[in-house]
Prior knowledge:
Blueprint: E1 5-17, H1 20-52, E2 62-67, E3 70-75, H2 78-98, E4 107-119, E5 128-129, H3 131-143, E6 148-152, H4 153-158, H5 161-164, E7 172-174, E8 183-189, E9 206-216, E10 222-232, E11 245-247, H6 261-278, E12 288-293, E13 306-308, E14 314-316, H7 317-320, E15 323-327, H8 328-331, H9 339-358, H10 361-370, E16 375-377, H11 385-397, E17 402-406, H12 413-421, H13 435-449, H14 457-460, E18 461-465
Parallel strand pairs: 4-6, 9-12, 12-15, 16-17
Antiparallel strand pairs: 1-3, 1-4, 2-3, 4-5, 6-8, 7-8, 9-10, 10-11, 13-14, 17-18
Helix pairs in contact: 1-2
Amino acid sequence: MSSSSMNIKLTVVQLDLVKSSTYTCNIAREGGSELTRGFINQIDNLVTSAFNKITNRSEYDEFHSLGGDAYRISFQDVNNAYQFVQYFCQFVTEEDNNEPNRRRRIFRIGAATGTVNFDSSQSGLRRIEGDDALVSVSRLVTAAPPGYFYVHEQTFNTFDENIKQKFENESFLVPGKKHENNIKAYRCQMFINTTIQNANNNANNIVNYLFVIVKPQTNQKFYIEAQLARFINNQTKQKKDDYELLIQIQQPEDGCEKKHIIGVLDKIIQEMYKITRERDIQLSKLPIIELFLPINLLSEGFDSGEIMNEWGKKTPIGKLYPVIIRSYDRFLHNEENKARLKLAWQPQWESLEKIINDNNTEQFINIIKNNNTYVKFIDDPLPNQKKRIELFQEILSKGFPLCLWTRYKTIDNNVVKNFETIFAIDLNDTNNFCKIYRIYQNIHDIRINNMKTKSDFGYNLGILFDHDKIPTGANQLISPNMARKV
Length: 486
């Protein structure tokens, strides 16, 4: 270690402007690079003003631009870190309020405390090195919803009591990337109004997906992760500004048992509504719940599991929401030997999508009856668990995007006719979305109308439908980018 460097405990704050490109692109179109520089200078002035408000700074306290509108600020006193964030958010809000026509600027902020190597002979960001605090703060600021301040557990525990009172009581876990531990964190809302104006937002044109990933642990338990993903006109090529919305709830650190999965899912749904209300996000239609399950759970009937409805009555989740079962192994498994599964699925899916979009209902049904390449009907009763896993291994290995089965002991013509109603892709859809969306709605309609008793078709219908809306980052399941459209 050089004479100019030393190990020291610092609290590192990182802040990032939400939807920054939507500001800078508009500014650049209107006034070019000079006006863009002025916008960035405004943020720099706000950071400087908040930093200068901290009067008892140490020689190790400093701030640096991460490029554009993002900054990293470090403090030796953890309470100064909170005071800086408070001043910064206050100055941003006051400046925006003083100019009513200004588009509000909302930041997401993170802070982590840890031992770093401080080298006074270096310049800029290289003055501080150290994986623990720097990696943690990066994960926290990326996970934070607009307007929120996420802090590492060590940071929270070191705060003065009066500062701790400003944070929510319950901690939660922010996942790291592959080979990283989850980060235990606390949060505080710093910007009260987090609505960002966007003239192109139209809730009626947006299809919302609640991606729920059931990740198997080594102890026969499961860790459940979720994110709301939003698509304009249900198209993967059109990006919705608010489409990255992480949903976090308290779970045992070693995961939950299989019998508790549906209960955790219920809590996730309630948390989704809470967060969307807080952020003033309008949901004009029911979200499509997509359960990514490991192969041993694909036929467990979670799409008919019961949760509480609005009146406190247990109701099948598939009756309350469109619910689709997806394959965890196909898209999200970390093992390299599973990589072939997605490659086998991709061309099959592209062909099925084209067939659906290019044909009417009668043509579509005739094609899948005469060609078993794209849709797999399990027309025999499901076998025992071991044989069932082997059956789904074959389905995934062959790349079938869509698979249907029932839990009946016998399968007759009425069951087959019920299957065919799923493929009525010509039914009127006032939203004018793609025909794939019509299939989701057909599945939901079947369950709404056929789940009065356990013997009804809606209870016994099983569907695996892997389409093009998938979480990204197979090695980091709930990174905030997991809902990126492909």
